[in-house]
Amino acid sequence: MSSDESGTGKPPQKGWKKRRLQGACDACRRKKIKCDSRNMPGNQCSNCRAFNSPCTHDEPAKKRGPKSNYVTRLEKRVLKLEEILKQFQPDVTIPDFDEPASSTGTSNNVENSTKDSPLSDNLDGGAATDDSDTDPDMEYIEVMDQMKKMSLHMMDNRYFGPSSNLAFMRKAFSMKSEQTGQEVNVKKEHWKNWQTHPWEQATVEMSRNTFYFPPPDLLADLVELYFTQFHPYMPIMHEPTFRHSVVSGQHHLDPRFGAVVLLVCAVASRASDDPRVFLEGMSEHSSGWRWFVQTREMPRALFDMPSLYDLQFCSLSAEFLLATSSPQSAWTMIGLGIRYGVEMGLHRQRPEKPNYETELSKRAFWGLYVLDRHLCLYHGRPPAIRDEDFDLEFPIICDDEYWTINEGGCEFIQPSGVHSRMDYFIMHLRLCQIMSFAVRTLYSIRKAKQAEGLVGASWPKNIVSQLDSMLNGWIFQMPEHSS
User: Fold this and answer.
1) 23: left (phi over 0), alpha (psi -120 to 50) or beta
2) Which ranges constitute the DSSP H helices of 269-355?
């Protein structure tokens, strides 16, 4: 019997939910144990008194609540499932939200009609819907935060999953703190092997390459061509910000951004009839090559933290290479970009409110995903990352011109009645998920099929039937203005 029950002498009523004691001290809050400081003399809890440690209440309480966009995603998911259910089972009665699920058999019907679809858990880009306070999928954020506290520059903002040695170390520190009642103090000299040495720093400090950009008039034309002919299909950048950066001359100061600008020119040259985009004396097949080849001299820092420019660099390089005589060379560049994204933790959902940087990162990662899925299917190769290995949400459906960027963050408000061009990109992502399912089932090797339980003579027919159902669902989800 708990102390709460013994104090009142009453059994817990039905529906009674145990609540965490408010005002827990810093040590008990970190160890997630019960704290009685509010009822003890001097507000010193029995745990701190037993370990003879200070009982402080200085750390601000962590804000708890639903993950960003959780309720919106859940409502959209329910509406989509209801529409699909009505299409295939018109006779089913769907209860109101305030009606208990057990009052009808609808919940079982919904479960049975959607459980076989590999996209049923990914209607909003693979975002998890578990809203518990201790979501194991979110532990990687605590690992990254702990690396920052230890001043490990080379580890800052890098992703480490639950099987990593750093995650194991965090667990060990937490267990030691629980036993001793004291925070683990790691001496800085223990981390000397993880600090960047001078000879390694040379690979991080990128030299200022001398890039040769198109003349101003041609540069403006190529940027315009890129955002009208290519950006709508692969929206990996924010057009107003990119244009402003080019006008302000940032590409002359930042080599990483300069390389991105060169690749934009190279890709846009495929749609240009200006003779200046061709190599002198060469055919139209050489369009854009004079700018693409300069980026090959761009050093790729082995010890430096990847940036958003690196993801855009890989995506644009792959787009250009796809139009060459060796399109399969883009496959390697796409894999590098996805590896960069995983190292930055971009493949995982984040609980904080979306901002300019995170939204562009989502676009860049999903753009690489699209390229990867197309090349995997066309070349018969395995993907760089499996669908079940990331839970990143889809990009926000808001066109570039409606982003409001200010000191307080970024607001994404698509005007009512204005159809977003991002709808097409989202539908493309959903189609790529279906392509991924086809590659994983129909075109996988025998060992993979056996692991998935695809055995017997009937499985090909079942998979084809499921693909047909998924494609019908994809068409049903298509916005009216895009059909």
Assistant:
1) left
2) 289-295, 308-321, 329-343
Per-residue tokens: 310: 């690196």
Count H helices and E strands in the chain, helices first: 18, 2
Closest CA to 50 of 71, 22, 76, 31: 31
User: CA 358, 359, 361 angle in degrees (round to 5)?
Assistant: 65
Looking at residue 356, its amino acid is Y
Distance of CA 369 to the CA centre of its chain: 11
Residues 310 and 415 in one domain: yes
**Does some domain include residue 259?**
yes
Q: Which residues contact 459 (CB under 8 A, 6 or more apart)?
A: 449
Q: What are phi and psi of 410, to 5 degrees?
A: -145, 130
Q: Are residues 279 and 235 in the same domain?
A: yes
Total residues found in the chain within this entry: 483
Q: What is the pTM of this model?
A: 0.65
Contact 393, 73 (CB under 8 A): yes
Residue 459 falls inside a structural domain: no
Q: What is the dihedral of CA 333, 336, 337, 342, to 10 degrees?
A: 160
Q: Tens of pLDDT along 253-264?
A: 999 999 999 999
Burial of 40: CB neighbours in 10 Å, binned 0-12, 13-18, 19+: middle
Tokens of 72: 């919106």
- The domain tally of the chain equals 4
Residues 150 and 81 in one domain: no
| pLDDT tens by residue, 142-157 | 555 555 544 444 455 6
**Cα Rg of the chain, angstroms:** 27
Strand ranges (E), 276-417: 403-406, 409-412
Angle at 289 between CA 283 and CA 293, to 5 degrees: 145
Taking alpha carbons only, the member of 456, 439, 431 closest to residue 375 is: 439
Per cent of the chain over pLDDT 70 is 65
Q: Is the Cβ–Cβ distance between 36 and 45 less than 8 Å?
A: yes
Query: Does residue 448 form part of some domain?
Result: no
Kindly state whether residues 409 and 272 are assigned to the same domain: yes
Encoded tokens for 276? 């200046």
Name the residue with higher pLDDT: 287 or 99. Answer: 287
Q: How far apart are CA 411 and CA 83, in angstroms?
A: 30
Where in the sequence is the domain holding 173, given as residue range(s)? 136-185
Identify whether 463 is part of a domain: no
Given 393, 410, 429, the domain boundary residue is 429
In 194-306, DSSP assigns E strands to none
Q: How many CA atoms lie within 13 A of 383 on its CB side?
A: 26
Q: What is the CATH number of the domain that holds 35?
A: 4.10.240.10
CA distance 460 to 444: 12
Tokens 């099987």 — which residue? 163
